[in-house]
Each structure stands twice: as C-alpha cells, then as structure tokens.
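Memo to structure team: turn this sequence into structure tokens by end of day. - J.P.
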Amino acid sequence: MDWTLVKQFTGVSLAWGNANGLCKIDYRGYANKMSGRTVTENTLFPACSITKYVTAICVIKLKSSGILDLYADVNQYLRDWKIRDLEGEEKKVTLIDLLSHTAGIIDGEDGFYGHRIGDKNISLIDILEGRTTYNPRAARVEKKPGTFFEYSDAGYCIIQKIIEDITGKTYDKVIDELIFIPLGMEKSFIGTEENIKCHQKDMATGYNLSGEAIERGIPLCPDMAASSLWSTPSDILLLATDFYTNLNNGYGQEMLNGPKDMNWVGLGLFMDEKHIVSKGWGENGQCMLKINIDSGAMGVVMTNMNPEVPQEESGLERLLDSLL
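Reply from structure team:
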C-alpha cells in the first residue's frame, strides 16, 4: 500500500476486504492537529455524498415492503410540497429519476455549504423553495425527466421529504431502523445537531487545502439524505458487503437499474464495466467506496481534508485501486 498517494491529507482511514467479510483496516495522521488527537479505527469521518448510496438503499427497502413504487409520480407521496415545473404546474417525476440525478432539477450555484450548529434553522421546504443561501435556487423541473443528467443535492432533499412523509418519522430514525441497526453499523450516524453533540469527541475535524481547520467548526447538513452521514470505513464496508451479497437476486441488483442510455449511472451509485462506486466530497473531507463487481473485492477510504480536486486526482482512487 502506497500511503504517499494520500500524504497531503491531514488524516486518512482505510478499510478493505471482500464479500466474505474479510476486512483489514489501517489509518494515518490526525483527527485534530491542534489537540494532537490521532486517527484511530474509531475516528468518525464525514461520508458526504456516500450518504446518497445509503438513501438509495433505504428507498429500495421501502419499495420492497410495498410502501413505495420506483416508477410512480412521487407527488402522490408528498404532503405539503409538490414537484413543479418552471411554470408552477405539478410535474411527474419518479424515484428512478431522483435517485439517478435525472429528474431535471438543478441546484443553486455554490449551494449546500457553510451551515453550522447555532445558525438559523433551515427546513427542507426552505431548501426546496430556494429561500436561503444554502440553496438559492428553487427545486423545479427544468429539463425533461429521464433524459438529462444533472447531479443534484436538491433531488435527494425531495427523497428525504418523501421518506419522512410516508413513514411519519424523521430521516435519521428511518435510517437507524432499516440500515444501521440491522447491519450492526454501530459507528455510523446521521448528522443531526443532537447526534453531532453526542459523537463530537470521536469526530474528525475538517481541514482545508492549506491545512487550516475549516471555519466555525463541524458542518451541519439539513439536506440529510444527500450528505449528512458520519461513519468509519469498516462500518461502510459492512453496508457494502450486504449490498454485494444482494447484488444478484436482491436490492443490490435493483440499484444497478438506472436510466436508459446511461449505463454508468445507477440508483445512488455509479458504475463502470468492473466497479461500483460511491463518492463523497465536502468542505470537511473526501472519501470513496469502490467494489469490484466480479471478485467482490471492496475498499473504503475516508479523509478529513478538502483537496479541492476530485478523487481521481487526489490519490484516493489510486489508493483503492492498488488494493482491489
């Protein structure tokens, strides 16, 4: 393993193994440079958009229980907010569209960054209506659904609203019940303000490219279904192992069925001929999950620094490729 590939990161944690449950872990650097707290196997890192992979699994599980239809108009599930086009008319969008970023919804420029504990509360409807700088663009269908790929955090906010409306529970509680508890993911949580306060001593401090701690502390993500997961590589590997076990005849297979003519896009994940990939990248860290479809080899790497370049350039993908 060549740690020089990721030597620029303040802290790095890694887990890799295979579908039989074999797992190795390693870690380097600091969870907090100021205090001298080093990374351990229990250090919690921001999973950022790997949260979308978790959200997609949640949706498929709700679909399997008969609560959701992946191809239905999701407006039937939404109670006090509806998906509309730019003219204000209700527009049919499916969960397939939302999960694969093909619903035609475009995020506001420079959105989904900078919110912190103590800031004014932002509701999901605030985000979806573009009422704040957190997402200054209302979530409206701007392109024909199913025909145009546009990576969208706002689309996953809609999924969060659907999950909460149909279950009558908060998103974090649903994820606990359907995923974390059944899989024994004891080191994973959704970053609500309450959960952050409970786990803060084990959470990695985020750093910018200059090695300075990000301003005003730990990000708080009201877009929980898009980017609020905190976890460890070994915990995410538990989820990946269960996913791979269900790849041929279970929920994993359904998640590979993305939009037509876009064979690289699944539901909450991305693909090439050999791998399934989920990536996360935010102001306080970067991470990546990669699974070899044929062999079942899999790995997760998590960091607490924003390298300002994608995983292909920062070294994360090359590190995982060296292990898979």
